[in-house]
Design goal:
The protein is α+β, with helices and mostly antiparallel strands. The protein has 14 helices and 23 strands. The longest helix has 21 residues. It binds adenosine-5'-diphosphate and magnesium ion. Adenosine-5'-diphosphate binds next to strand 8, strand 13, strand 16 and helix 10.
């Protein structure tokens, strides 16, 4: 992409409505525009990051054996009357009447709808286990939408649902989700710590939230600092192996880590004092096992191998896809702007031409552009007739992890400059070498 042909409405001033850094940078970098409280348009740059995050979520769900589908945003109220949640959900639910007077709602989540699909099509234990998921817009009429996309009213979420014959099988599904989430967040350059949490209106006993530590987080958390040394890394895992998934769960949840809802001072006191931490965190996902709550109330049953009709054991598992855009910025920025992790960056590499219109510099930039593209990379070329300072400021704000700077002086010596956004370090090298270096970084992701 060439900047002169792109739509990147960068703001010079700090928007007054933004109180946290991710919201401020998302507005300033032209990623989003608010349309009403807690509802945003995703402008091209923001949309790219959102899609990159969504793709990682899809890849990791599919790797874990979960099956993608898509349910509608608008749901009939009757389904929610069956589960009893139509009344329970309260003011957060956006209720709508259609022209025939039918009660509808904009879905805040999909337990009821997926259970309805399941009961219509599945009747035998032979069809289990089954985990279906979708990534779809949700609406919750939050009392205080704030912090930009972090607590929106309309937001994008992955929600997955497992159906199993027994509690034991459903707990394996729970563990499998935990493992796949660890991988998912790490690929986005995040450390998200699973913490024991409270199940709230979904019901059930087993639940973990995944929290990214950040001062601006809305949750108060308490943990054993040893947990931050854990890394999932690139280990191979067989998602069908009960034992392997269980082992990972134990490794990542045996240390004390809880949100304020389940915090227990007495248990926390057992953590060595120098490792006790209290901090704030951003909830980027949550997994639940809730047993037969929905299957019993809605009649989602299967025939088991003894010809008995039994309700299935279920869980639901969410990832806050749109919130993650903000959470990643909270975790990765400096005072000049965003610093995208390579896994989610909207463009792989920026190209800055220090002297637009100079025949040699222009040609060198074009050559770099095609060379990066031929490696399957997407460059963003700042080809505006602007001063170097302005170009650098834009690149720093939008946070591409790598930048190649091209100027007539360097070209005389056969070099361009490759700069890391994270460290600020620059290295002069031949254009080919710079391209090879950038290609290698992304190939190793
Ligand atoms: N209002 C919101 N705006 C953006 N993301 C949200 C919002 N509410 C929930 N999410 C994201 O969706 C994920 C799953 O939602 P869920 O656990 O059902 O929500 P909650 O914890 O608010 O009850 C959360 O972990 C969070 O990342
Ligand atoms: Mg939650």
């Amino acid at each position: 992409m060439r900047l002169t042909r792109y739509f990147l409405p960068v703001l010079k001033e700090n928007p007054s409505e933004a109180s946290i850094v991710s919201h401020r940078y998302m507005l300033r970098a032209g990623m989003i525009k608010q349309s009403s409280a807690g509802i945003y348009s995703w402008l091209p740059l923001g949309f790219k990051v959102l899609k990159n995050i969504e793709n990682i979520v899809h890849e990791e769900q599919i790797r874990a054996g979960h099956i993608p589908m898509l349910m509608p945003t608008i749901q009939p109220a009757d389904l929610w009357r069956e589960s009893g949640r139509y009344e329970d959900y309260g003011e957060e639910m956006l209720r709508i009447k259609d022209r025939h007077g039918h009660d509808m709602l904009f879905g805040p989540t999909n337990e009821e709808m997926i259970t309805d699909i399941f009961r219509a099509h599945v009747g035998s234990y032979k069809d289990l286990p089954l985990t279906l998921y979708h990534i779809q817009w949700k609406f919750r009429d939050e009392r205080r939408p704030r912090f930009g996309v972090m607590r929106g009213r309309e937001f994008y979420m992955k929600d997955g649902y497992n159906f199993d014959l027994s509690k034991e099988d459903a707990l394996h599904a729970y563990n499998r989700h935990l493992v796949s989430y660890l991988r998912t967040y790490e690929r986005m350059g995040l450390q998200a710590i699973p913490m024991r949490a409270d199940s709230g209106p979904i019901g059930g006993d087993d639940t973990h939230e995944f929290l990214v530590l950040a001062d601006t987080g809305e949750s108060e958390v308490f943990y054993d600092s040893a947990i931050t040394d854990l890394k999932f890394g690139d280990r191979e895992i067989d998602y069908d192996s009960v034992e392997q998934c269980q082992n990972v769960l134990e490794e990542f949840t045996s240390r004390y880590a809880r949100t304020d809802e389940t915090h227990d001072e007495a248990a926390f006191a057992n953590v060595p004092e120098e490792r006790r931490r209290s901090a704030r965190g951003i909830e980027v996902g949550q997994i639940f096992y809730f047993g037969t709550k929905y299957s019993e109330s809605m009649g989602a049953t299967v025939i088991n191998d003894k010809q008995e009709q039994i309700p299935v054991h279920m869980g639901s598992h969410g990832i806050g896809v749109s919130r993650l855009v903000g959470a990643i910025i909270e975790a990765s920025h400096d005072d000049k702007g965003i610093i995208w992790p390579e896994g989610v960056t909207p463009f792989h590499c920026g190209i800055v031409n220090l002297k637009q219109g100079d025949a040699e510099a222009d040609a060198a930039c074009e050559a770099l552009y095609s060379a990066l593209e031929s490696h399957g990379l997407e460059p963003l070329y700042d080809d505006r007739n602007e001063r170097a300072g302005g170009k650098f400021a834009t690149m720093d704000l939008i946070g591409l992890p790598w930048r190649i700077t091209v100027g007539p002086r360097g070209l005389k010596n056969g070099v361009v400059e490759l700069t890391s956004r994270r460290t600020g370090e620059s290295q002069e090298m031949a254009p080919d070498a710079a391209v090879a270096r950038v290609a290698e970084i992304y190939a190793n992701l």
